[in-house]
Known about the structure:
Shape: rod-shaped
Number of strands: 0
Structural class: mainly alpha
Amino acid sequence: MSDSNSYSDKNVQDEVSELETKSVTAARLFDIRRIIGGLFVVYGVIVTIAGLVASDDEIDKAQGVNINLWTGLGMLVLGLFFLAWLKVRPTAPIEEAPEE
C-alpha cells in the first residue's frame, strides 16, 4: 500500500540540502557589506568625477576646498573597505547539527 506520490527519506534529505544551499547562496548575495560597499563605490566614483571637473567658481564657494573630490575619494575608500572586508571575512556557512 505504498503511495507512488510520497517522498522517500532520501528524496526529502536531498530537497532539504538543496534548499539549504540556495539559502546560503542568497545570504551571501544579499550580505549588507556587499550592498553598502557597492553603493559607496558607485556614488564615490560619481562624486569624484564631479570633483575632477569642478570649476573655479564651485571651488571658491567651498572656501577653496574641492569638497566633491575629497568626499568622493572618502566614499571610494569606505566602499572598498567594505568590499575588502567581505572578501577577507566571508559569511560563515551554516553548520549542520549532528544527527542522532
